Amino acid sequence: MFTKGSAAVCIVLFLAALNPATLPLRAQASDSGASSHKATAKTLAVSYLFPEQVTVVADKPTPIDLHFKVAPGLHVNSHTPHTEDLVPTTLKLPETSGVRLAHAIFPPGADFAFPADPAEKLSVYTGEFIIHAELVATKGDHLVEATLKYQACDNQICMPPHSIPVTIDVIAK
User: Is residue 12 domain-resident?
Assistant: First the structure.
C-alpha cells in the first residue's frame, strides 16, 4: 500500500527511468513547492491587534471594536462565505468568563477569485478588519479568552481551519 508521499516518489522514479536527465529538475521543483507550503503554514495567518483592555458599564451592552490583521498574501473566508462548505470566520467567548457577547457585526467580505477559476467568487477578508462587538459583563475585572476561528488560504491552497486567542481584560464598573 502506498502513502501519498511514497506514491509521489514512485512517480518521480518512474519519470527518471524514462528520462534520467529530468530527475534533478523534477525533484527540485517538488521540494521547492513543499517548502513554500510549509513556510505558509508556519506563518500566523491572522493576528489580533487590539484592544488589550476595555472598560464597560456593568450589566449593560457596551460596544467595542476588535481589530485583526490577515498576513500579506493570505485571505480568510468572511463571516458569511458564499457557500456552505467554506469555514466562516467566527468569534466565540467562553460561557464562564462573566462576560458575554451580546452582538457582533462582522465586516462584509470582499469578492475574491482564484486565478484558476475567476468565475467563482469567494467572500474574504484581507489586510485589517474590525469586528464591532457588544459585550455585557458582570461587575468586576474579567480576563476573557475569546476565540477567533478562521480558514486561511493563499492563491494556491487553503490551510486547515485554525483558531487564535483573543485576550481582553474587561473591567466592568
Answer: no
Predicted TM-score of the model (pTM): 0.73
Nearest to 45 by CA among 129, 115, 106, 117: 129
115 compared with 53, residue with greater pLDDT: 53
Query: Any idea which residue has 477569485 for its cell?
Result: 113
Cross-strand pairs, 99: 137
Report how far residue 140's alpha carbon sits from residue 145's, in angstroms, rounded to the nearest whole number: 16
Please give the angle made by the CA atoms of 153, 156 and 162, to the nearest 5 degrees: 25
Residue scoring higher pLDDT (116 or 104)? 104
Number of Cβ atoms within 10 Å of the Cβ of 34: 12
CATH of the domain at 83: 2.60.40.1250
Give the structural domain span for 153. 42-172
Q: Cα separation of 58 and 62, whole Å?
A: 9
For the chain, what is the domain count? 1
Q: What are phi and psi of 171, to 5 degrees?
A: -105, 115
Which of 39, 13, 8, 25 is CA-nearest to residue 159? 39
